[in-house]
Amino acid sequence: MTGFAALAGQPVIAGGGLAGLATALLMDRPCVLLSPAPLGRDAASALAQGGIAAAIGAGDSVALHAADTLAAGVGLCDPDAVAAIVGAGPEAVAGLRSLGVVFDLGADEKPDLHLEAAHARARIAHARGDGTGAEIMRALVARVRATPRITVIEGAALRRLILRDGRVAGVEIMRGGVVLALPTAACVIATGGVGALFPATTSPVGGQGMGLACAARAGAVLRDMEFVQFHPTALADGPAGAPRALVSEAVRGAGAILVDETGARFTDELAPRDVVARAIEAHLAAGHQVLLDARAATGGAFARHFPGIALACAARGLDPDRQPMPVRPAVHYHMGGIETDLNGRSSVPGLWACGEAASTGLHGANRLASNSLLEAFVCAGFVARDLDAASLPMPRPVGEPAPDVGDGLGLADIHACLGRAAGILRDGAGLARAARALAPHVAGDDRALVGAMLCLAALERRESRGGHYRSDYPRTAAAAVHSRLTLARTLTMLAELSSGEPVLTPADGLTVP
After folding, report:
1. Which CATH architecture best describes the domain 4-193+335-389?
2. CATH 1.20.58.100 is right for the domain spanning 405-513
3. Residue 273 annotated as catalytic
4. Where residue 509 falls among pLDDT bands split at 50, 70, 90?
5. What is the pTM of this model?
6. From 123, 252, 273, 465, the catalytic residue
7. How many angstroms separate the CA atoms of 369 and 238, rounded?
8. How far apart, in Å, are the Cα atoms of 15 and each of 138, 198, 217, 248, 304?
9. Where would one find coiled-coil regions in this protein (predicted)?
10. Whose CB among 41, 174, 359, 497 lies 3.0–4.6 Å from 37's, allowing a Cys bridge?
11. What residue segments make up the domains of the chain, in order of their start?
12. Are 142 and 131 in contact (CB under 8 A)?
């Protein structure tokens, strides 16, 4: 690759979504931005419909926004992280506007604010109706392309971190089937979540947890891997292998109701996502249909309020102004990830993380609607500030890339394992079976490693909390305790599980008798 050697020593940001682009834009250093797809495509950020949550409206406050976030997180939010990230919400909206994001404005020329589930106030700022993520990405992609100090390498993905003396010394980059090694003392993982490891998801195909695997193989601590958020309302039908079309929380916030085939309501539409998702799953399991009826809520103008959703419905022969939409839950967000401090630093020196790949402490056991775009932008700023202040060692040669080890599982096999065992309703027997099935492949298969870590964390958490529900442990423990896994502990647990030894003793507080 022409000029590649000249990039040695620059921070490398892996990920072409909001978190990656914002980190690159908000730092002052020259940097390298890796995007597996053309910039702005195949990023979950571009699919975000609901908007960005910020306490900028009359009668709202940072304290109220923080209280809603803490309540949704069911005891596992870090209050300091919540205060810092939510507190930066008003500044984040202003910062995005300064970068060219055009928000929908009210008569007062301020962002028009909307209500979503589990928010006590209307505090969700939208852009282009239900196209907030696409509008944010449009603006940031344009800014990145116009910033000479940012070197964008498209079609490139982080393959491995190279360590020397326990800290990051370089990265291996996969591009066009060729592996390249680049010396650097700083890498930011902003590769998104794990949704594409599940059969029904709203995530793009790239959301397979590869950044989490890279961090784990470098020795990083991964936290709360078991907490997966299932969005209650994805369109029930869609092309095989494609992300499910999301029907935003904002539709329910505008007054749409969930009904069955008889027209009867059966749940509180604005309850936290995990509650609504379980209610829908139970109703479906009982043989009912589940429909989202927006006819009265939008008064025949659904497409004006939600143009993106209207297009998705039209592609499936649905008209939300005339008929209810068949919906069902789909994997939407991963609350777990690489454990970081408020500067985005992981447990591995030289490795930062932000966005969905990071476990910052904001979301706890269940993410509050529209807090993800907020976290991605705000924490990107924290990472950028920390990197600008960091004293980074001079780059040294890193040698040849390591060869691949072992054969990988097909994505269909991963889907089968996680879809059966790690869905909305889980139990110990199913989780153990899935972990044992994945165990032989974790040495060389990053998707299998991430799936196994998720199953082990869920198996170890013998309670139900937030996005993690165990049918064999339906109660919530009095003490809220984080789960933490490293690669070494994962391999030990898998070996013991495969041998049949009863060694999966949960940490104190993770079991409800």
Report:
1. 3-Layer(bba) Sandwich (3.50)
2. yes
3. yes
4. very low
5. 0.93
6. 273
7. 24
8. 16, 20, 18, 24, 32
9. none
10. 41
11. 4-193+335-389, 233-329, 405-513
12. no
